Give the backbone structure.
Amino acid sequence: MSTILVIAGKEIRDGFRNRWVVAATILLAALALTLALLGSTPTGAVKVSPLIVTVVSLSSLTIFIIPLIALLLSYDAIVGEIDRGTMALLLAYPVSRGEVVIGKFLGHLAILAIATTIGYGAAGLALVAVSGGFDAAAARAFAAMIGTSIMLGSVFIAVGYLVSAVVRERSTAGGIAIGVWLFFVIIYDMALLGILVADQGRFLTAGRLSWALLLNPADAYRLANLTGFSNVAMFSGMAGASAQAHLGLPLLIGALTAWTVLPLGIAAAIFSRRQL
Amino acid sequence: MTASSVELAGVAKDYGGHWALQDVDLTLRPGECTALAGHNGAGKSTLIKLIIGLIRPTRGFVKVLGENMAASGSTRVRDQIGYLPENVAFYPAMTGEETLAFYARLKRQPVSRNSDLLARVGISRAGSRRVATYSKGMRQRLALAQALLGQPKLLLLDEPTTGLDPALRQDFYEIVRKLRDEGVTLLISSHALAELQGQADRIIIMNCGRKVADGTMTDLRRAAALPVRIAIRLAESLRVAVNDSAHPLASWTPKDDRNYELSCLEQDKAATIQALGSIPVALADVEVTQPGLEDIYAHFLKRVDE
């Protein structure tokens, strides 16, 4: 255990030193503040908490930005250290390869968690301060969004590690990481939409669609935030969808967890067999 | 006889169709400094990586300090091994002190001893600087410092003196001698043969993945059966025609009327020199040239190439 913490601690310090934490925090805070302050303007008339509006708009943006940050953090983690030659020395220490993978993962996850919590948290606090009213239910939904955003990040860090453990070249890892991002964030949903339109519900029934959405961590995240809390679901226009999709919050959280644990486990297994 | 620290039997390593090592048997004992010589690509680094457990043998077994290194639970034994990799790389953003502290924690060693270690390798003043600013020699010294963390019983040094200037090499071998006297098992790979000659108790020569020689300097000299060159100069010239079979130096090669040369085997050397007493004229000079490690090395590599 202590070995894992030593490796995680080193990654976190690297993250602070090379300005990753600062840059990601500023980026996320800027996006969140922009959406929060611009997006909450029209809500006065419909009596919806500005936090809820922000959960809807910010979670939609998070689907694009958090996986990108996570993949950029992680694609280099294994292949890069092998390439630069630092891995040979690290593995000559009393450290197992599984500990290296888990330690680095926890370090990168901490970097992303710090940036997300501070960046989004600051925006949330600013919004509460500006709008005046504090709505406990809305605050819970906002906190849940921060939590699930970190989980979404952990999924893509794990996927990035899997890429990093498989390939021989850092540039290949970077290319595949971009492909992974495009696939899960953009192509998957467009393909589903295309099939839905062409198929007219014959093959892709509502039940099958639910499973198809669970198979994409970005969709699981979207559903968790847009349908997981009734106050948000009402506003996002997903109240009907949430009733149809029969995917409860625990199932969606379970999908995100599985999407983290499986790729990470496979990455560790592949890395353990890899020749240096 | 003390128990062996490292034991390799019938080890072979296949890198996708290319045999980096074949049929290597090797035993290293405590308090013994072994030099590993060979061309680039002879399998020196592969052998060291097998011992530390970075790679697993395709055939044969590797046992280090009583542990089978192919077994998954073998990581603990690395607490007692120091390793200096070839072309060592550190994390450039960390300082020398942070680097050493990181590795000390991984080895479960108190960080408090690190400043002594940095002083021992002569970079204590640069300890608070980032490793990215270090010269090659300083990085090599930091590499040696991390290898010495936690008083290892086995030290594997892969090309440790590359990038060190001659004065630093002397310091380095001073440290090595001290460790050997403390009973540490040392394996040093290098292609700087001349500097290994005086340092190693034992020399192993590798070629194309095979061990072609293993023994002390004297063992190798005898096994190589390289000729000893004897050159003599006479005080005055002999008044006998060179092609006359009665000439006392008939088997020698004349350089001119006073200088002669002869190559003979190690075991015939003494008798040849004794026979010089029967020459009717006085000797002005005798010069005996023994083969050096470079010659022995060249001999063993040639024998395999043929």
Notes: The mean pLDDT of chain A is 88. The interface with chain B takes residues 2-3, 6-7, 10, 14, 17-18, 84-86, 88-96, 275-276 of chain A (CB under 8 Å). Residues 2-273 of chain A form one domain.
